[in-house]
Amino acid sequence: MGNILPRPVHASGPPARRPARTAAQLLAALGALLVVLLGTAGPALAANEGVRGTLNNGGERVAGATITVEDEDGEEIATAESNETGGFAIPVPGPGTYVVKLDLESLPEGVTVRAEGGEEREVTVRPGAVAPVLFILGEGTRETTGTAERALQLFVRGLQFGLVIAMAAIGLSLIFGTTGLTNFAHSELVTGGAMLAYFFNVVVGMNLIPAAILAVIVGGILGGLLDRGLWRPLRRRGTGLIAALVVSIGLALFLRFIYLYIFGGGNRSYAQYATQQPISVGPIDIPPRDLVIIAISIVVLTGVGIALNRTRLGKATRAVADNPSLAASSGIDVERVINVVWIGGTALAVLGGVFLALSQQVGFLLGFQILLLLFAGVTLGGLGTAYGALVGSLVIGIFTQMSTLVIPAELQNVGALLVLIVILVVRPQGILGRAERVG
Fold first, then answer.
1. Distance CA 286, CA 145 (A)
2. pTM, to two decimals
3. Sign of the C-alpha dihedral, residues 334, 340, 346, 351?
4. Which residues fall within 8 angstroms of residue 200, CB to CB, at 6 or more apart?
5. What are the backbone dihedrals phi and psi of residue 362, each rounded to the nearest 5 degrees, phi first?
6. Where are the beta strands (DSSP E) in 40-105?
7. pLDDT tens digits, residue range 353-400?
8. Between helices 186-198 and 241-263, what is the axis angle to 10°?
9. Domains, the chain, with CATH or none
10. pLDDT of 136-155, one tens digit each?
């Protein structure tokens, strides 16, 4: 980091020919790496439809239990037994709705489902997807939760969702703050991160934890190459922000359909932690992975905040976000700072994508589905500020979940955007944004 401040960036910049040649070389390298990573995964990702899950009774795996899959007419499709690790995987003839039944008589003595009727699960299998099935095992039947318990459950779920959104939104906000770019392709970085982790986890066979770490590293490198190969040449040529916005939309569409072509239209789960039996924390039932996601997100976001405030690079980043010209005249290498922001922002987006796919599934529309929520969090918190993106994302995440207490779940994102409009009418600069004079 000692070389962050060696030389100013001059407005005139270097000649256009050399950046163009460098851009072509870097884009070629980026394309080759994508082909190697995703193209290699292509055959393995073309899996048939099916259902799978893991039988877990208080931390102990349940082996030898019989699971049956029936179609909507009640006709038996297939039967399987859980293996020594409690796992089962059953192929189905194609997309559709199926009923997965657990034979209670095949369970070990003293093991049963917690709720009446919990031995049957109706699942929808999408084209090319393997749907997860969760049977909640344990003694007793949990009483129906009241409104207060449900609100607390939704608050925790919203906190987790807001932290995941914040992982991606902070990178988006920092990129906007340092370059002025409204990057519509940022959601595809989220999707690409989830797919990278899937490649290392399912295709290569790594455990999800090292696979996610490797995906974050590779994603950060690809983010830096993307800046050097595309956005830096555009900046040096004086490309306007509107034109750059259009380029980002085109890049988003290009990446989205590349994902669709290679990965397919179905959704898939990671090899580990896709289905987990919830644990009870007071009145809240929460899968252990969600607790881990919340803890890691808090640690990572705290680290980002400390880095922005205490490190030399963080201070340089804030200086560039405040006034790039003044920062350059002070000796800060603006382009290097921007490239580091791209690396860090993409790495955060990749981690957010892995966490989001853990809660849902990996699919080519994973990031696009939260794109509006990302922009809502950044705008609500205050454009260009990392802390604003964090606060705005938490507000959006908690509200989208808790709003389902009074509105249908299908409208929860609409409610979040309505809150965004109301708050911006009262405070146009956002929660932590600074008011600026226009004109």
1. 14
2. 0.73
3. negative
4. 206, 210, 211, 214, 215
5. -80, 130
6. 50-54, 56-57, 60-61, 66-70, 76-81, 87-91, 96-102
7. 999 998 888 889 999 988 988 988 888 887 767 788 888 899 899 988
8. 30
9. 17-44+149-426 (1.10.3470), 51-127 (2.60.40.10)
10. 776 544 444 567 888 888 89
